[in-house]
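Supplementary Methods, section 5.1.

A reviewer requested that the exact input to the structure prediction be made available. We therefore reproduce it here, unchanged from the version used in the analyses.
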Amino acid sequence: FPSHDIPVVIVPSAATLAPSLRGKNSSVSTFLWFQDGLEEALAFYKSTFRDMKIHNEDRMDGKLFTADFEIHGHAFIGMNMATTGENYFNDSISIMIQVDGQEEVDRIYDSIAKEGEEIACGWIKDKWGVVWQIVPFQLRDWVGHSDPEIQQYAWQALRGMKKIVIDQLHQ
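The structure derived from this sequence is encoded token-by-token as follows.
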């Protein structure tokens, strides 16, 4: 955990939750810590992902502090916390978006690439440092093919790609 002078966000225990929140089913959310770019990131995600919803925004001193949102049904909590400029996102964790067809791969990947950084094999880092992996459902048709030669060709082709191009996964 970073050793900066930052406030600690404390999540209340079940005993202290408001009565309306007790007894709810457990859930999993991805918590993203932004370096003061949450509001801009939310606007970008809303324009990039067709199924992005913002459920709640909390402001502190008039500035967006946290937001609960979802992309294609996956829950996120974003927090604005400007610190020393270090980026706490890294390449070891990515958010995979599985899509149908090359057109959707191109639309999302290219949108992120405009101000992001291409990595490899469908991974791309957005301008805030969040790493995404934009993967067509059709990838499994080739890398999981029953014919070992077709499968090997697809894996080799994938290793040479930044954005996944379905037509280049097979001969």
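Strands lie at 30-34, 52-60, 63-71, 74-80, 95-99, 117-118, 123-125, 131-136. These observations are discussed further in the main text.
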